[in-house]
Records
---
Amino acid sequence: MLQSLFGARTFLDADVEAWQIETWALLLAHFGREIPFCDTPLITPTPDFFPPTDAEGHERALHVFDCTRRAMNIESWPCRLEAQPPRRGGERVSEFVTLGDASSANGTFRTDPDGTVVITYAPELLGAPVELIATFAHELSHYLLASMPEAAMDETHELMTDLMVAYSGFGIFGANACFSFQQHGDAFGQGWSSRQNGYLSPRSWAFALAVFVALRESDDGMERWLAPEIANLWRQATKYLGRHPHLLVPLRDFVS
């Protein structure tokens, strides 16, 4: 009752919120030395960052992949992109319900014994450009974090990788793709499928976007690109940070 009257003490669980602020500080300290954070653009689904192409199939994926690398300033880093085998279809468990396939990840990152970095993607994502870009940004963030060996050993590494996506300016894609829910139907029945993309929750993504905007002191019209449910959480997170400016004090020294 008191919480409903006065509001939650923290936007996220206290431990999660503290982890995000601490991780933002780590990323700013490490990567801000080479590229000032204030110079990081907000990446949007526009021709400025993703010029149109007539390519199809894997060539289309390569085009989007190269655009993503260019926006992350790692276009020259050696890397090979591979398509995963097609996923199997959903499993029908009743007349009206079909389970989606969760047998494979949207993307993977690995370093081969010869040192070659290989990123894979699910070819089905070619029909879901936001998820495709979010997947590439996440896997390429693994590549960026390779310069922080201590990060690879941390149990929160995948969460940190998602936060690196936000740090790199790709938060719109990561947040919008963090959870997809689809209803489908045909002559034989109908059903629903859902798939978790990435590791941060929608609320955590909203907080990360609010931090990104607050540190840059400009939202660049971010809200117009956000899914409604994410936009609503982002507005809440932005107001929360406005009421608690002390949370960003440890970060502002890295961007001033």
---
Amino acid sequence: MLVKSVTVARKELLDSLRDTRPLLSSVFYILMGPGLVFMLSVTRAGSDSSVITGMMSIFVLLSAFVGGMNVSMDVLAGERERRSLLPLLMTPLTRWQVTLGKWIAIACFSTVSVLFNLAAFALVLTSAHITMHGWHRAAVLVLSDFIPLAMLAAALELGMSTVCRTTKEAHTWLSMAVFIPMGLGMFLVFFPRAAGWWIRIVPVAGQQKQLEEWVRGDIFSGTHALLLGVMTVALTAVALRIASKLLERDDVVYGN
């Protein structure tokens, strides 16, 4: 089953890499955050780094959603619009294999986006002389929290693309969906005490708290990081299952 899904993912990756315009657009959005934070660090040299840290956490969350956005709007909504989705579903592939393969392709772009964004921010913080505490802790957070976040973003975007009839409609809804992590992130930056301890294990919000605590050098809780990773993976599985079930509906397949 996995081999067939990987074949679908390979096809989607190759198709996405042929068109450089969406890739350049994604790179621009990914680098926009580190660029803005760098300029802010220069103008606020020697001042409190809490604002810089807060902005960094928001842009990292955005990178998980922006990285796979252009790919996700094409793998299902675009394929339905080109009338190539039905022939694909008529091949000896189950709906789950098709869903999993397309999700793998989106998740690859989302994961690279998050890693690239984190690396760019590491350079920005180093140039701003903001101390980062414990690279081993950073590695744990990337593996347990931020890669699962990229996978969750890919699953949610795939689900939205599944129900959209055209690429234009998918672009509209996926662009609006980017404001969800942005709005949640800004709320937690300006009202950090509005949520209790449970926010640390809630996907998206939990990743933001983990990142801010790492930069500040707060006490690290491996239990919270593990629970957050498990919750993120579980939510990803639920989103993928829903997307797979949607592909069994005629109105979704034909776009009626």
---
Amino acid sequence: MQPAPRSFIDTRLNQLSRQQMIQAVTYGSQGSAMQGFSHLLDTAEIAAVVDFVRDQFMRRQAKNTRYHTVENGWEGHDEKYAAAYPFALGEIALDTPFESLTENQKLGWQLFMQGCVSCHDRAQVLQEGDIWQKRPVSFPRNQYSHLQPDAVSSASIYAEHDKGPSLGKLTAQEQRGQEFFKANCAFCHGLDGSGQNWIGSYVEPHPRDLRNLKRDQWPLSRIERAIAKGVTGSAMPAWQHVLQEEEISAVARYVQRLAQHYQDESAQGNR
């Protein structure tokens, strides 16, 4: 990711000389997205641009240089987008678990993602991860099966997540859990448990990445409770009226085994 564009409003005149700015506009700034304009502007035009920036942005800090103004089509911006400010300013990380946000913060998150993120990028996140997140533009067609993808979906970027890992020898209980997981849970979580398959990427908020469930934070009892009761504020339903207790326990055992597989694999890769 390129560094954020320089804010001239926060730059003192004596910290950035006129000549330095002329050099940057002429030749660009190495290590940033700032390109040189010598092929478009002559010397006098470059100097005029620099002098305008120094006068308006750095000396006067004039209001007409602000973007979110009525003149720029942002009437009532402060009132309409107030809930999104904590995300734009980095006060609340953008990847904060959705279910932990207040109702007003959830509204702010949605406003930010719908209108602010294109310019403010990710503001602040707890985990850097990928710069861009894959997102499907449509729900799968009729007759779609995550177990037998059609010719189109099998060639998509989501297909890799509908391939389950080889976990070696499973106990009889884990095998029962695996069967139910493949037939039901994998529809949203993917066969690899990532939640990054077609359906999982479509659902908002995305299904939890089961590969990251650490035993000290997610003991068997907590996984069983999530399966039985569902997860508030998400698409995760309660299965307590569909499955018997021993069936819920079997699924939980398999999920735990699945998570352990990926964590062991990661630990080996880091050695």
